[in-house]
Structure formats: structure tokens, C-alpha cells
Specification:
flat; alpha+beta; two-stranded antiparallel sheet; 494 residues; 17 helices; four-stranded mixed β-sheet
Length: 494
């Protein structure tokens, strides 16, 4: 159950004068009282106040955003487009990049062995790593070069949902290899603790393999240059492989690190992570994350915001003077993260104030459910496609389909919607036949029609799981929804 909005205190619901003010404006107004924030940290009193701001002002804003389809779409895009099971262009780009890494590594290793220059494959930072290996005496080490390891496709994947709440700084290996982990972590640039870390770490992993193969390829090309014409074919193959890797890498960078969507995604993630850290019982059912998982990640995230630090102890002297008499350890808030949260609030201000438009609610729902029935205006979507039917001219068929969808969804008692004008079992059979014919008159409609069944001597029903059906009543006038924006042919009439 979601935390009750406004439970964080009356001051978070109204201004002091009693006039209504949105929570976003209140949060920004409250933060302005501490401006400018100290650059190098905060004392304990300010840390307590800033942490209370996160809990009492920022969390309610995020609770409002959790119901916003635009916010949900931006956050969900990572899972929907990047997970291994996803059949998306974004996922194929990652798989194609991984394949190009294996192909290039194989070409480099084969050429080095063919021309007897295997030593070229050695990593440029090998000397430092060998000293570390000798000192660490770690048994989980594969001594081969990164290029040689790439041939075996050692990664579980370039992207992982484990980075969703906090960065793992891991190359995601199938078999433990402390040396490879060490080499990868040295290559990772600074990554902010809040925001979209999934795509940041995805690009970091891709960059690691690309950079290593680039370095090996350049050294090998120089060595093969002394082999004359007999090495020309190998040089050409290596060059083409390196060009292909760079092309695949740039596609991924452009998709996930460029454009205004990146900034909004970072803002959405930063606020969602703040919500999980400071809400006592975070609930995000539409994201499919268990409450226990959220609680565990909330503890990790909260430790990012506040950690042990050192503050100066000040002694007051007469005439308004003071002196430092010592230092002490204290629990302090990281003001850099506070600034990041403030920037995220600012970036999402328009989305928060605009609220949820009916078109956006429909757009989100039709991507999540196999069957979506919108009550007002009357629309039916099957597997995301709008069935181009004029339901206002087919009252009986609409009445039956709505009844079937409500029952299949299972969220309302059966008596909430009644099938009007049906006196006998034969009448229901005839109406079922007409509905199936009507559905089959348009593209994709026959697929839904095939799911309409009837118990012998009993009621009609939809042969579908309840989780695949959604009945949506927006209580909206027709003019508030751009029906033709959903990309379907002209509406057919019965």
C-alpha cells in the first residue's frame, strides 16, 4: 500500500497563509532558505535539516510523480529496452557491439599468432598488474591479456539491472577474475552516485573493451607494417574490425548519453533513489520491484547521502571572535548530492506541474497490457494497436466487450457491470457472434475475437489472464483525447 500523501506534515501540504501550493514549489522554496549551500560539507545541525528536507519535502513530490505516466515511461524505458529478454533495437545494438568485440579480439589474436608477435597482445599496464598479482597472491586470476580474454566472451552482459539503484563498478564476468576487475575499475570515469547508472555503466563497460582492443590493434598494425605485403590482408581485417567496434560503440553512446532525454532520465532516477532512501515503506508496484529489495537498496542509498566526516570545534572569544580548538567526528550530509536532488527537482518541474494528460495515460497502458479497453472515449487496443472500430455505432457489441473485459480484469465485482438486453442463452450467443464478426473486420481484431469463449449453456468469457487486461475509465470528454494520434487506419463503422 502506498504511503498516504501529506503524512509528512501539514507544512508540506499548505503555505503558512493556508493557500494551496504544490509540493514541488514548497520543496524548492524550503531549500532556498539554506542557499547557498556550503561547498565542502555541512555541520551536524544543517545535515539534520537537509535530511529532514529530503524526507518531508522531496519524498512527497516523488509520490506525486509516481502516478505520472511521463515519469514512469522515462524510468521504465531502461528495463523495457535494455534487459536481456527485451526484443528492442536498443538491446540489439548492445548484442551487436558484444559480437563485434569477440570478432575483433579473435582477428587480433589470430594475426599475432600467425606472424609470431604474440607479445604485442600484452596489456600496456602489465608491469603494474604483475606487481599487484605478486603482492596479492590472488588465486582467482587469469594471467592472459584482456584481448585474449575477450575472445572467450567473459562477460555475463554489458548491461545489468544491478546498476539501477547504485553503480556496481563491475565488468559483470561469468567467472571471477580479480585482475580483469582491477583493470576495469581503473578505466571507469567518475560516476555520480545518483541518477541513471544503468546506462552510465553500460557505456563504461563498452568503452573498456573498445579501448583495450584499440590499443592492441594499433600496436599490432605497427608490427605488421614490417611484414610487407603478406600482412596486408590481416591489417585490413583488423582495421575493419576496429572501425566496426567504434561504429557500434558510438550508436550506444548517442542513444544513452546524448539528448534531453538523458538529462530527464538522470533527474527521474535521482528522485526515485531519494524516495527509496527516505520513504519508510517505499512502494513502486509498476516497476516490479519487491518491497524487501527496495528496503535493502534504501539502506545503501541512504548511506550515500550521510556518512562520517570531520567538523571543527569552535570556541567563542570576546568581541565576536572565535577560534578552532579541535575537531570531532560527525555524521554529515553530502551537499553535492543535495545539489543533485535540487537540480533534478528543477529539471522535472514542468512534468510535475503539467500532470498526467489522458493521452499519456493511454499510451502507457497500451504498452503494458495485451487488451486495453478505454471507457471514455471508447477505444480498444490489442497488443498496443488500436482496433479501428467505431464503438459508438455498435452499442451492443461494446456493451458485451466491456463486460467481458471487466470480468477478465477481475478488479470489480461482477455485478458492477451487467450485460443489458440479454434475456436468453441464445441472445448471448448471437451477441457473441456479432462481436466476433465486428472485431474480425479490422486488422488484428480476429486475434482478440479468438479469445472470446462461451461456457456451454452459460456466460461468455475472455480466455486471458487477469494481468493482461486493463479497463481504463479516464472520465474524459472525447475532445481531451487525440484519438488519431495512436497511429491506426481510418475508423471502420459497423
Amino acid at each position: 500500500m502506498q504511503f498516504e500523501r501529506g503524512e509528512h506534515g501539514n507544512e508540506a501540504a499548505h503555505t503558512s497563509g493556508g493557500a494551496e501550493m504544490d509540493r514541488h514549489a514548497l520543496a524548492m522554496q524550503r531549500l532556498a532558505q539554506w542557499a547557498p549551500l556550503p561547498q565542502s560539507g555541512a555541520n551536524e545541525i544543517l545535515s539534520d535539516e537537509l535530511e529532514a528536507w529530503l524526507r518531508d519535502y522531496v519524498v512527497p513530490v516523488v509520490e506525486d510523480l509516481l502516478d505520472n505516466p511521463v515519469f514512469r515511461r522515462i524510468v521504465s524505458a531502461i528495463c523495457e529496452q535494455l534487459l536481456e529478454s527485451s526484443d528492442t533495437e536498443e538491446r540489439r545494438q548492445i548484442d551487436d557491439f558484444a559480437d563485434s568485440v569477440v570478432t575483433c579480439a579473435s582477428a587480433l589474436v589470430n594475426a599475432a599468432e600467425e606472424f609470431g608477435v604474440h607479445e604485442v597482445l600484452a596489456d600496456s599496464d602489465r608491469a603494474d598488474d604483475e606487481r599487484w598479482i605478486a603482492a596479492d597472491k590472488n588465486a582467482n586470476i587469469d594471467p592472459r591479456s584482456v584481448t585474449e580474454k575477450a575472445v572467450d566472451r567473459p562477460w555475463l552482459g554489458m548491461v545489468t539491472s544491478q546498476d539501477f539503484w547504485s553503480p556496481t563498478f563491475s565488468p559483470q564476468l561469468r567467472v571471477t577474475d580479480a585482475l580483469l576487475v582491477r583493470q576495469f575499475r581503473r578505466s571507469v570515469p567518475f560516476v555520480k552516485l545518483l541518477g541513471d547508472r544503468v546506462s552510465s555503466m553500460l557505456v563504461a563497460r563498452c568503452n573498456f573493451w573498445k579501448h583495450r582492443l584499440d590499443s592492441t590493434g594499433q600496436r599490432l598494425q605497427i608490427r605488421l607494417g614490417g611484414e610487407g605485403n603478406r600482412a596486408f590482408k590481416a591489417q585490413e581485417e583488423i582495421l575493419n574490425c576496429l572501425i566496426e567496434i567504434d561504429h557500434r560503440y558510438q550508436l550506444i553512446r548517442q542513444r544513452w548519453l546524448a539528448g534531453p532525454e538523458r538529462r530527464l532520465r538522470d533527474a527521474c532516477f535521482a528522485l526515485l533513489q531519494t524516495y527509496v532512501a527516505y520513504h519508510p515503506y517505499p512502494q513502486i508496484p509498476w516497476l516490479g520491484v519487491a518491497s524487501q529489495t527496495l528496503s535493502v537498496n534504501g539502506g545503501v542509498l541512504k548511506a550515500f547521502f550521510r556518512h562520517r566526516g570531520t567538523v571543527k570545534e569552535i570556541e567563542l572569544i570576546s568581541h565576536g571572535r572565535a577560534r578552532v580548538v579541535g575537531t570531532k567526528t560527525a555524521s554529515l550530509v553530502d551537499t553535492n548530492l543535495i545539489r543533485q536532488v535540487a537540480a533534478a527537482l528543477d529539471d522535472l518541474g514542468e512534468i510535475y506541474r503539467r500532470g498526467a494528460h489522458p493521452d499519456e495515460i493511454i499510451e502507457e497502458a497500451r504498452s503494458q497490457y495485451a487488451l486495453l479497453v478505454v471507457v471514455r472515449p471508447r477505444l480498444v487496443f490489442w497488443n498496443g494497436e488500436r482496433l479501428a472500430l467505431e464503438w459508438n455505432d455498435a452499442e451492443k457489441s461494446w456493451n458485451l466487450l466491456l463486460n467481458l473485459a471487466v470480468r477478465a480484469e477481475g478488479k470489480l465485482p461482477l455485478h458492477a457491470f451487467t450485460l443489458t438486453g440479454v434475456r436468453t442463452n441464445r441472445d448471448q450467443s448471437v451477441r457473441k457472434l456479432h462481436l466476433r464478426r465486428y472485431l474480425s473486420s479490422v486488422p488484428h481484431g480476429d486475434e482478440l475475437a479468438a479469445r472470446i469463449e462461451k461456457h456451454r449453456g452459460g456466460d461468455c468469457y475472455l480466455d486471458m489472464d487477469s494481468g493482461a487486461v486493463k479497463v481504463l475509465d479516464l472520465d474524459a470528454d472525447d475532445w481531451t483525447v487525440e484519438v488519431n494520434s495512436f497511429g491506426t487506419p481510418p475508423i471502420a463503422k459497423q
